[in-house]
Amino acid sequence: MDNINKIREFNSKVIVGIETGSIPERLAAVAAEVKGHGDSTVLNLIYYTKRSFPGDLQKMLLNVAGGGEIDAEEKAGINFLVLHNLASLYRELLDEAGLERKEVNLVGLKCMEIAGDLFPNDLTAFSGIIDRIVASHFAIDIEGKGESLPVGEAILKELVTEMIDKLELDIDAREAVGVALLANEALYYEKVGASVRGGGDSGEDSSGVNISRGVGMDGGKGKTVLNGKFFFPY
C-alpha cells in the first residue's frame, strides 16, 4: 500500500471518485487518470458508471431523511448496507474498467448526508474493505472565524464545470469527477491538523490514522483552507 507522500510523487495517478449525492437512489463512480494538480491538472476519464441502491435500502434512507425514528441498531444496519453497496460498486467499477486493485492509487468519496447523519459513518472500515487509502470529509475552513463549510454538491459542480466543458464529459459524471479532483488536490496540501483513530503517531501515514491537510487559498496567506481527511486500512 502506497502512502500519501509516495502517491503525490507519481507523474500519473489512477483515482476513483465516488459520489453518493443527496438522493438515496443514486450512486455514481468514475475511474480517472490524473496528472498534476491545481491549474495544471489534466484528467483522462477511464470509466464512469452509476447505480441505484437496492429498493429496501432506499426506503430505509428515505425514512431517515423524512425524520423517521431509528435506534442505534437500525442505524448500524443501514451503515453496513451502505458500506456493502459502495464496496460492490467499487469492485464492479474496476471490473468494468479493466483495472486491477493495485493500479488504483487513491479513492475519493463524498458521503451521503441525511438528517444530520453521514452514511457511511466509518470510512476506516470502507478503506479496509477495499484496501485503498480513502480521501473524504472535504471542507472549507475560514481561519479566524472558526467556521467550517462542508463541500456540497453545488461546490462540486462549480469545480468541474470548466473541465466538463473542455473534455465533453457526461453531465451525469460531474459530481464523481469532482470528488476525484478533490482527492487529488488533497494530496498536495500542507498538513494543518490530524486526528488519530486506534492510536499511533498522528504525523505518520500509517494504518488507522486520519490526516487532515489544507492549503491557503487566498494568495498563500492561509485565510481560507480547503481540507480533506484521509482514512487508511488497518
Overview of this protein structure:
The structure is a single chain. It is built from six helices and eleven strands. The chain has 234 residues and is α+β, with helices and mostly antiparallel strands. It has a single domain (4-231), classed as ATPase, nucleotide binding domain (Nucleotidyltransferase, domain 5, 2-Layer Sandwich), CATH 3.30.420.40. The strands form two sheets. Strands 1, 2, 3, 4, 7, 8, 9, 10 and 11 form a nine-stranded mixed beta sheet that branches. Strands 5-6 form a two-stranded antiparallel ribbon. Strand 5 and strand 6 form a beta hairpin. The longest helix has 26 residues, at 72-97. It is globular.
Sequence-ordered SSE layout with sheet pairings:
Blueprint: H1 4-8, E1 12-19, E2 27-35, E3 42-51, H2 55-65, H3 72-97, E4 106-110, E5 112-114, E6 117-119, H4 123-130, E7 134-142, E8 147-150, H5 153-167, H6 174-186, E9 190-196, E10 209-216, E11 224-231
Parallel strand pairs: 1-4, 4-7
Antiparallel strand pairs: 1-2, 2-3, 5-6, 7-8, 7-11, 9-10, 10-11
